[in-house]
Amino acid sequence: MTSIVRTPVDAAADLRDFPWEVREVPVPFEGDTVRVRHVDEGPRNAPVVVFLHGNPSWMYIWRESIRATSAAGYRAIAIDLVGMGLSDRPASMDDYTVERHIGWTREALDAIGVRRCVLVLHDWGGIIGMRLAADDPDRFTGLCISNTGLPSRDPGLAFSEDADVPKGSFAGFQRFARTAPAWEPWTMLEGMMVTPVRDEVRRGYHAPYPDQSHTVGSRAFTQLLPTTETNPMLVPNWHAWMRLESYTHPVLTLYSDRDIVAPKGWKEIVARIPGAAGQPHRILAGGGHFLQEDIPADYNAALVAWLDSFHPPAHH
Predict the structure, then answer these.
(1) Which residues are annotated as catalytic?
(2) Claim: this prediction has a pTM higher than 0.85
């Protein structure tokens, strides 16, 4: 049985800008359970909006979006992916795969009791969420996608001779993340944001990591990046694209003009997913990879306006 690092629920208790009750649901893993922590704000019977973060963030990144959508009458649920934020962490980097993240997230939604919802996706949350939508399109009645992509590989293509050799812009980062004696996810904010990082924001990103054992999930995500042709998510993602080509629920892309991770990720989404046709896609000015931190007002105004256009709460 694998060991699990249990994250203290009060790790974020003293964050001024994250005031919500932290809830948890158990998700099975290797004969044990991991606790998936989340917040669940707004009217119980309202349309549900589920926020999925990426790396190196946690549900804290959605705090202004939780405020904006719950104030607009939606039920806002933000989940900490397994290994991240306040959720528990399987202790070995080898415990983490894209397929497991998809399964853990699906099981968490089942345990929370979410049957139909809109997904709001960022970074790794985009890969996980698009895969969930491809698997069960009618469960997810809309997708809002930011600064991410769904990398894939046609299974009919032959491999090159060095198919297993990491290549591309993330290869060096991946090697550093694997070998660095200490991994400090919160120190990556400066490279991913355009605006100056305020001390309380840095404290928010640091809060779930009281010691190095808690950083395993973040470090593991770096190893899942598709730097080789043989990366195990690429062919399943290709099959997911085949299904997303008949996904007709609304799909919105809100990207930022200074993202360094996936600045063009919106192009394939808009070109291939039918639900993206005619939507008010935006490339928002003044945002880096963490556009929720750099330009929260613009981002959330666009998000709420889009939600209201097809999924308004009853009182609107």
Answers:
(1) 123, 259, 289
(2) yes
